Amino acid sequence: MSAVSHLHPESREAELRAWWMPFTHNRMFKSAPRLIASAKGCYFTLADGRRVFDSLSGLWCSPLGHSHPRVVEAVKRQLDTLDYAPSFQMGHEGAFRLATRIAQLASRPQDRVFFVNSGSEAVDTSIKIAVAYHRARGEASRTRIIGRERGYHGVGMGGISVGGMVANRKMFAPLMIPGVDHLPHTYNPAEMRYSRGQPTWGAHLADELERLVALHDASTIAAVIVEPMQGSAGVIVPPKGYLDRLRQICSKHGILLIFDEVITGFGRLGTPFGADFVGVQPDLTTFAKAVNNATVPMGGVIVRDDIYQAFMTGPAHMIEFFHGYTYSAHPLAVAAGHATLDVMADEKLIARAAELAPVLEQKVHTLKGEPHVVDIRNIGLAAAVDLNPIEGQAGLRAIRVFERALDEGFMVRFSGETIALAPPFVSSVDEVEAMVEGLRRALRAVPA
Ligand SMILES: Cc1ncc(COP(=O)(O)O)c(C=O)c1O
Question: Among 46, 275, 401, 412, which has the minimal tally of Cβ within 10 Å of its Cβ?
């Protein structure tokens, strides 16, 4: 039984009252709460005892499954040795080693890593680095940041400014950073519905950046920020050649290219980073989530060495970059990071994600023709199924499918009218296939 469900409705309401939950329909949730009690491997156990498959690896962040013994052990050990260390004017050895390992995994061994505690902080940090870099080089007019429609870059003021999801922006418009513009998103159902992997249509949309350069002038633009794969908007897959073209245009105009790899970093596409999948190297890379299997909050930015070097001027006793967080490179997060990278390497989990990707692709596309389904997309070990909205009640269909899938034993993710799937890398083939079958049953059970 749920820890709270046996209570009188009034006591239950009182227990759930204080926590204003993030990105949640609070009133609907609290009238029918879904509480998680524990997690192990690919499964959550709900407070009512049901065991459900974690079809999105948490929130895209737990590719090793939950409570991996080596990660748990590493964090426990760290807790006994060094629970916290300030990172301002002091350092601890594990953080330096982890930065080196991350740069190496990204095939950028010469580059630098700045640690933060979340994807949102990573994005805001990358924007600050971009603007400050140009100023340091004497191009202080380069302050504009170009994001993309339907982009999700977290919820910091920088992230929502460059992000392109209207619901995340409209309440806060006056506070957002000025001097931002947006590229069009690349999703066009008429051209790419039910495509498998990268669509062949859409590379030309990168040329919109030339239009924005013509409009604003390159001398005012600091950076372009895009997700290699737009995860939160519903697995919007980059058209073939699109990111190459963005790269070329950025380089031509001296604009920095930021890849927001908070979802795609650490193996989700079957390659270490999304950059490896598409064969395009950005100047700055944000990461978070899977870096330490989400065991302790952590994020960061990988920074091209010469960008770092541009800050390394002035007297050596001066702080070069006035930025950082109390918990940057928290020892527990660092310990979890080392253990996560160890497990990924020893168990060849990134290759495992690549092996599972065609299994997911083949299986998820069998949902074509099922009730409510209007599109299916996939890339790496990620897929999305778009649903036909209930007239006048946007989003409700996906909620119903989500609830029904939970009853079937699968915790999927819904966002708008999209169901997203991104199972842990340690899933078996049977589990991936069963997940899709569970979704099929849920789709069939939800009324037209
Ligand atoms: C691409 C991207 N950037 C940034 C974020 C924000 O990360 P966080 O929720 O850790 O702040 C997310 C979260 O899903 C994301 O997908």
Answer: 46
Taking the CA of residue 119 as reference, the ligand 1 atom at the shortest distance is 7
Q: Are 95 and 333 in contact (CB under 8 A)?
A: no
Q: For residue 448, how far is its CA from the centre of ligand 1 (angstroms)?
A: 33
Q: If you average pLDDT over residues 352-366, what whole number do you get?
A: 98
| Ligand 1 centroid from CA 100, angstroms | 23
Strand-strand pairing, 284-287 and 221-226: unpaired
pLDDT value of position 175: 84
pLDDT, tens digit, 9 for 90 and up, residues 227-278: 999 999 999 999 999 999 999 999 999 999 999 999 999 999 999 999 999 9
CATH of 69-346, one of 3.40.50.2000, 3.20.20.70, 3.40.640.10, 3.30.565.10: 3.40.640.10
262 Cα to the center of ligand 1, angstroms = 6
How many other CB atoms are found less than 10 A from the CB of residue 174?
Answer: 5
DSSP bridge partners of 258: 225, 284
Neighbours of 436 (CB within 10 A): 22
Q: Are 286 and 122 in contact (CB under 8 A)?
A: yes
State which H helix or E strand residue 161 sits in: helix 157-162
Whether 260 lines ligand 1, by a CB cut-off of 6 Å, is yes
- Ligand 1 contact, 232 CB (< 6 A): yes
Span from the CA of 397 to the centroid of ligand 1 (angstroms)? 25
Q: Which of 232, 268, 269 to mutate to test the pocket of ligand 1 (most atoms within 8 A of CB)?
A: 232
Cα dihedral 139→144→148→149 (10° resolution): -170
Q: Kindly report the CA angle at 55 between 295 and 336, in degrees rounded to 5?
A: 15
Q: Taking a C-beta distance cutoff of 8 angstroms, is the pair 309, 120 a contact?
A: no
pLDDT tens-digit readout, 202-215: 999 999 999 999 99
Q: Ligand 1: distance of its center to the CA of 9 in Å?
A: 35
Domain 34-67+348-445 in CATH 3.90.1150.10? The answer is: yes
